[in-house]
Amino acid sequence: MEKLGIERLEFIGAGKHGEVYKIDEKRCIKIYRKRRYLRLELAALQRGAEAEFFPKVYDWGRDYIVREYVPGIPLNEYLRTHPLTEEVAHQLADMVEIMRRLGFRRADTRLSHIIIDENGKLWLIDPVNTMKKSPPYPRKLLKGLMRRGMAEQFLEYIRKRYPDNYRQWQLHLDTLISRSNKRAATTCRLTANMEGQDRPAPRRNDCAGKEAGAFSLPGYLWSIHECRDKSEKDQLESWTKIINPKNSQEIHAKKQET
Ligand SMILES: Nc1ncnc2c1ncn2[C@@H]1O[C@H](COP(=O)(O)OP(=O)(O)O)[C@@H](O)[C@H]1O
Ligand SMILES: [Mg+2]
């Protein structure tokens, strides 16, 4: 490989696995913290070489991979200010379907590992975890959409675009919802058992709250509501505000009905 002189390259980002520098308009280099990470990511990029949403690999060495540079915005940020379009939804579904077909152990990704470029094309830039074990459905992707209240709409696009796979995606989403509700119920039972102790209020980041937060009545709060434990119910309002301020009034109204 040509001598690059990393110190002269533009730093474009870093994560748990390494640092990325721009070489030119077409290429960037990721320097890995551990060889294990390099091996996992190289295996994923090679497996996905025929899929057009993975950056091309140009070269690699002991601790680096030179790959296609993809300018754009991470999808998690993009969806904060843009609606989920049919175009984005079908590329997401394609991503999962194609990864499945290519034999990835984890046909799934976080939204933050996807970049959307100026033409609206999606790229999976950080596939290091796609070779790891995973539940048999795209949990991270659906969780990301649920959190943003976009899961139902995503499913609607799937119904139009992939009528044959629609039922399967619907089951994926149902599985995710029922798991987050079960976890929420467990959290509820645990907190209800903490007699006489200070109850920690859930933080905005609590997974059960986040997963369920995208629905009109968040599963987490619904489970607390179902608990019929007075002291839990007393906590309800303040917790609601922490987890999902938008739904606070709705929960409050529901509480009054009982
Ligand atoms: N191919 C690429 N094109 C453009 N930017 C990239 C590319 N790969 C990584 N980056 C940038 O570098 C950051 C860190 O890279 P990433 O692969 O996510 O590292 P890690 O595996 O350590 O999380 C990304 O968040 C992104 O901003
Ligand atoms: Mg990353």
Characterise the protein shown here.
This protein has 3 domains: 6-68, Phosphorylase Kinase, domain 1, CATH 3.30.200.20; 73-170; 180-257. It is 48% helix and 13% strand. It is built from 10 helices and 8 strands. Strands 1-2-3-5-4 form a 5-stranded antiparallel beta sheet, covered by helices on one side. A 3-stranded antiparallel beta sheet has the order 6-7-8. Helix 6 crosses helix 8 and helix 9 packs antiparallel against helix 10. The longest helix is centred in the last third of the chain and has 30 residues, at 163-192. It starts with 9 loop residues before the first strand and ends with a helix. Adenosine-5'-diphosphate is lined by residues 12-18, 20, 28, 30, 55, 67-70, 125-126, 128.
Class based on secondary structure composition and strand pairing: alpha+beta
The proportion of residues forming helix, as a percent range, comes to: 40-55%
> What is the CA–CA distance across the termini?
70 Å
Instruction: Give the bound compounds.
Output: adenosine-5'-diphosphate, magnesium ion
Taking the sheet with the most strands, its summary is:
5 strands, antiparallel
Judging from the principal axes of the Cα atoms, what is the shape?
A: globular
Structure summary:
This protein is α+β, with helices and mostly antiparallel strands. The protein is built from ten helices and eight strands. Helix content is 48%, strand content 13%.
